[in-house]
Amino acid sequence: MSLIEKEFRAVKLNKFTLSIENFLNSLFLRKTKFILTKPFSAIKLKSEISHVVYLNWMVPLAKIQQFVPSGIALDLIGDHVLFSVLTYRHGHFGPAKLYHLKSLYGSPLQSNWRLYISQTQKQFKVPTVLFLANVMSSQIYCIGSRLFSSMMYTHQPLAFQHNHIGVQTHTKIIPGRSNAPDLEVVCHPCDHWNIPSQFLHLSKDINQLLNKIIIQDQALTPLDNGLFRQANIALKFDPKDIRPLKIDFFKSETLADIVQHEKCFAFEIPAVSFFMNHEKTIKL
Questions:
Q1: Which residues on adjacent β-strands are paired with residue 265?
Q2: Which superkingdom, per the lineage (predicted)?
């Protein structure tokens, strides 16, 4: 389990999955994608995602510094930085121009784990997140993202659920042999916003605080040798639909040392239109 491990590891190992594993981790594939930047760089992707659960912590920079690549400055609040885990179900994730064929697209679960880059850096004048880990429930989507994109080094865990159980939402990621991070959380909607004190340094206004966490125009993934993959992202949703959540149970060996003393600020967005396009490689 790791927040930054890129190597693809199949959940179940046999001759077939071993060959896939070796190819997806090969230098040949990395060089090919570096030279042939299409198709993802030219395709606008769309998904009508649902039931987005945000888990957010203000964590000491010292706890997360090892995961931050050289050349990246995080948005620092005192000696803390914002760290978020988003989990949701895609709704027909595929090319936007062919969305009339959306019935052919899959709707896998996804969880992405991210940090927030400072806009004081001249290369990032718009809100930008740094992807640390990405997990998807679909083997096809996981392999596809690794074949055609350098934006998400996606892991497929042994088990992945994100279900409603009565009024509760139960999310569980079991890595198995994969390099996916682990997570289990049970939460339910509550009536009032209870903002942890550390988050008040971001904003005391709930709408501004939510916008700070949610609204991001770019995403960044570190590659090798000081190179990064950057993509434009856009979200459309109704702010009135956002609901505060109360955590009933939380466990993660991956995050144990990072968030153990910090209070989680959690909320949910029932429906979001997601767009991503214009992948490109940049050097800092």
A1: 56
A2: Bacteria
